[in-house]
Amino acid sequence: QVQLVESGGGLVQPGGSLRLSCAASGSIFSIHAMGWYRQAPGKQRELVARSTSGGTTTYADSVKGRFTISRDNAKKTVYLQMNSLKAEDTAVYYCNVIITAPRFGDYWGQGTQVTVSS
Hints:
By secondary structure, this protein is an all-beta fold.
């Protein structure tokens, strides 16, 4: 089994910063991709940022230049540094990890709330 534990959400004022963390544990030999998605009330879940083992990094246009995704492969942890936060960044943020060994698996974290408000 694989578990994902997220942390770092909270309430922040517009223009502020937050750092999300997601640690994966369990039967993991190889990780293909780690990323973050978000879902705001009444909206579909959307990709925020994603990093693959091949070195490809993808960002949503709305967060480019403000958010940075990074990985610590030894710790099987992915981070999302969020700067210059805006009210429209308010959402539940979900960690996603795609594992290729010992067997393929697509796993989601429980979600962490990020609220940007004055």
